[in-house]
């Protein structure tokens, strides 16, 4: 399994559209620092799918990309001349298309429960972007950190086993990880979260999430997608200034 082009330069307005994809092949339109796109990347990697990655400059999008996604967002999965959008739907499409190694459980209740867990953990994403906002307005830090702690407390309480999927990762694990990863990035920025960057997120307050995060880091499908923290921080610095460098680190 390979994610080809994971660190390729982002295509922008004026760049030509990639060649037509062969039938039976997968292409994922991505942005290297986007947590939503990473959800689809992790899922494809966990299923062992060969995927061609095409990175998109989200501030200067190629004109043709709007034919793939009507809003010009990522991720978009292309397969057999058709496109599937939305980071929660692409994984479900892949499981429906390739049911022999479905990550979503077969049991109807367990299946919908995984989707509910993933939905509830979206609060971590909102909280992460809130902590970045507090960098511009330190007066917001206490409020934004209370929101973050609440989101992580809730996730801690939802985690009943090694993974949200039980003894092995499932849908909710792969769709939640990118948001915890970005909170880990934020822990390296002085004065943002106060979490221990060497033992994320905080072994004392969130022991189950800490163990879960380290278990996820050890997974090969996660390890191959990890962004170096220094590269991520450089991107976040530009992002906060309204000048994101989508090719940071390549």
From TrEMBL:
Q: Which GO terms describe its cellular component?
A: cytoplasm
Which reactions appear under catalytic activity for this entry?
L-dehydroascorbate + 2 glutathione = glutathione disulfide + L-ascorbate; RX + glutathione = an S-substituted glutathione + a halide anion + H(+); methylarsonate + 2 glutathione + H(+) = methylarsonous acid + glutathione disulfide + H2O
* Limits of the GST C-terminal domain: 107-245
Q: Name one Pfam family in it.
A: GST_N
Q: Which UniProt keywords apply?
A: Oxidoreductase, Transferase
Q: Which GO terms describe its biological process?
A: glutathione metabolic process
Is Ligase there in the keyword field?
Answer: no
The protein's matches in InterPro entries, at most eight in alphabetical order, are given as: Glutathione-S-Trfase_C-like, Glutathione-S-Trfase_C_sf, Glutathione_S-Trfase, Glutathione_S-Trfase_N, GST_C, GST_omega, GST_Omega/HSP26, Thioredoxin-like_sf
Residue ranges annotated for the GST N-terminal domain, each copy included? 24-102
Reported EC number(s) for this entry are 1.20.4.2, 1.8.5.1, 2.5.1.18
Any idea which GO molecular function terms this record carries? glutathione dehydrogenase (ascorbate) activity; glutathione transferase activity; methylarsonate reductase activity
Family, per entry:
Belongs to the GST superfamily. Omega family.
The name of this protein is: Glutathione-dependent dehydroascorbate reductase
